[in-house]
What does this fold into?
Amino acid sequence: MKQFSHAWLAFKAVERLEKTALAYEDRLYANELIRWLWHHRDGVIKGAWYPDMVIKDMATSHVLKFTPTAQGETAFRNLPNTCQVTAFVDQSSVRDQPYQKVDAADNLPERCEALAHSVIDNMKMREKEDRGSPISPTDNHIATRLFMLSHYIADAHMPLHCDGRKFSKHSDIHAEIESDWDKEIRKHFKLDLINERFFYNPDGYPLRTKTDYSQTFLKRVDDGLATRAFSTGYGSDNHNVLTYMLAVCQNSYLLSYSFFPPGYDETNVNKNNWKSLPGQLLDFDRLSEVVFNDAIDAIARVWFRVWRRYVEWTNH
It folds into this structure.
C-alpha cells in the first residue's frame, strides 16, 4: 500500500476501537490507548510510512509469498470469524491444494511480532527510567513504532504481498491497485501536504472533502465497520502476533487467487483486463472493501492486545 492508505487505515483503527462494542474491562483498556494515541495523531502519516521511506526492508519484511505446489503445506490457520476474507477463501481454487513459501527469507509475521514486543519493551523502559534519561524512550518514539506496526499489518492484507506470482513486473498491476486505493483517499480526504498530516473533522478524524463519497468502496468500509462485530481474539489457532499474522498472510494468498484465478499471472494480466478476468469470485471494489475492512480490524486488534499486555504488566 501507499502512504495515505497506510495513514488512513491507522486512523480508522483508532476509530474502530473508539466506536465498537467491547466488554467493560476491554473498554477501559481501549479508551486509555485511544487517549494516548490521540496525542500523537499528527505523526500518523510519517510514522506509518517509515517502513517504506526509512527502513526500506520491502524485499523480505513486507511480504510472505506462497505458491501452489505438488507437495507442501496443506493446512491454513483460522482467522477470527468476523473477518470478511473468510467469505471468499473457502471458494478459492487453490484452497485444497498444497502450497509453499516462495522465498525462505520472507519474514512479515516475524517483523510484526518483533515490533509488537519492542512496543511493550519500550513502554516498560519508559516506566522504569527517569524521564530525561538517555536510555528512556519517548512517547513519540513508541507511537512511531505503533504506526510502523500498522504498516506491516496492512501489508499482510494486500493479496499481492502474499502471492508468489510476479504482478510487480510487466504491467505492474501491484502498483496499479495500490495507486487506485491511494487516489481514492487523496480525492475524498483533505490533506495538509506541507506538514504531512490530515486535516481533521470535529471528532478528530480525517476530514472529508466535498466530493461525492456515497458510491466509493471507502464508504462501504465505513458502513461495514459500523455493523460488524469486533473480536479482540486472534483466531482459534493463533496465540501471538506471529501466528496471527501468518494466518492473515495465508488467507491473503487465497484471496489473491479468488481475484486472479489460476492461469493468470504477470504475462497475461494487464491494465486493460485485470478488473474483468473470467473466474473472478469478486470484483475490485469488493476486494478493496474486504482488504481495508480486515486490515483496520487487524491493526486495532493487535494495537489493543499489545497495549493490554503492557497495562497488565504495570498492574502486577
The first strand starts at residue 66 and ends at 73.
